[in-house]
Amino acid sequence: MNSQDYIDVLEANLLSYLQSLPQHQLTLQQDNASIQVMASVKTTLKDAMAREWNAIPRSTIKKLVASMLSQIFDVISRQGQTTKH
């Protein structure tokens, strides 16, 4: 598998899979195999993340920012323990 094959797999499978799970917060983890650290792969992932970030509605971002203060106070009052957020 070369870097273009890897990019094709990510674009064809990973992005659509992640989009099917919008309620979950997921983290893409890689093991720094040579195919994963190539500039073309990094650029493709960066571009895909930028597209997804830019697709978030402005109203959603405003709502999240507006809720930050209450969330911070919640974390402080619970001394860092689990909150409802």
List the domain count as a whole number.
Answer: 2
- Uncertain regions: pLDDT < 50 for 5+ in a row? none
Q: Number of DSSP strands?
A: 0
Rg, Cα atoms, Å: 17 Å
Shape descriptor: elongated
**Percent of residues in β-strands:** under 5%
Helix content: 55-70%
Q: How far is the N terminus from the C terminus? A: 41 Å
Number of helices: 3
Task: Assign the structural class, choosing from mainly alpha, mainly beta, alpha/beta, alpha+beta, or little secondary structure.
Answer: mainly alpha
Mean pLDDT: 81
Largest sheet: none
H/E element sequence: HHH
Write a structural description.
InterPro entries: RNaseH_sf. GO terms for molecular function: nucleic acid binding. This protein has 85 residues and is mostly helical. The longest helix has 20 residues. The chain contains three helices and no strands. It has two domains: 34 residues, no CATH class; 29 residues, no CATH class. Helix 1 runs parallel beside helix 2. Helices cover 62% and strands 0% of the residues. The mean pLDDT is 81.
Which helices and strands appear, and what pairs or packs with what?
Blueprint: H1 3-19, H2 39-54, H3 58-77
Can I get a quick summary?
The chain has 85 residues and is mostly helical.
Name a few traits of the molecule.
single chain; 85 residues; mainly alpha; RNaseH_sf; nucleic acid binding
